[in-house]
Design brief:
Elements (H helix, E strand, L loop, with lengths): L11 H12 L2 E7 L9 H12 L3 E8 L3 H13 L5 E5 L10 H5 L5 E2 L1 H16 L9 E5 L2 E6 L3 H24 L1
Helix pairs in contact: 2-6, 5-6
Length: 179
């Protein structure tokens, strides 16, 4: 039996938490939209599908309107949870007057990762939408020990962000956060 410091074996709950952290991330997925329902939310569904396919768990999945107050409350609540590792938001990254996800999330980040937004826009420019890529404000960073990502709301943008950037580096990002 493996033992930890002090000669005591870890509790079953602590062992399960360690196993979950080692084997897969526990994620919150938020879709920010005034026009979608959970039934029509292709982007959030794709995030959940891709996470599950990569061995991660979606613990929270919610659809939120583009209202700053409820969005801030939802993000604050998941950042306070100890059973989550990752917060993924889709939607609200454009220039529209109702696109407020970035304004809500950015102040909560303790460390921003500018490379995520930069790489996302380069890939989006090269592979999907050309110069319109400059109109997204995708971002990522760390808040309260969690990896936080904000990506555009389109299904194509989510697929690009998840398959080319987030999933390939998710475990690495979490290892770095836990150091």
């Amino acid at each position: 039996m493996t033992q930890t410091g002090g000669g005591h074996s870890p509790s079953t709950e602590a062992h399960r938490e360690d196993s979950a952290r080692r084997d897969g991330a526990r994620c919150a997925v938020f879709t920010v939209s005034d026009s979608r329902t959970l039934a029509t939310d292709e982007s959030g569904a794709l995030i959940a599908q891709l996470l599950a396919g990569a061995g991660h768990a979606v613990v929270v999945r919610e659809l939120l309107s583009n209202d700053e107050g409820p969005l801030r409350l939802a993000i604050d609540q998941v950042l306070a949870r100890t059973d989550l590792d990752v917060v993924l938001c889709t939607g609200g990254t454009g220039l529209g007057s109702r696109d407020r996800t970035v304004e809500v999330v950015r102040p909560l980040l303790e460390r921003e990762l500018p490379g995520f937004g930069e790489l996302f826009r380069v890939l989006s420019f090269q592979e999907q939408i050309g110069a319109a890529a400059m109109l997204t404000r995708a971002l990522a960073g760390a808040a309260r020990g969690k990896f936080v990502v904000v990506m555009p709301g389109s299904r194509a943008a989510v697929e690009l962000a998840m398959t080319r950037l987030i999933l390939p580096e998710l475990k690495h990002a979490l290892r770095e956060l836990r150091r």
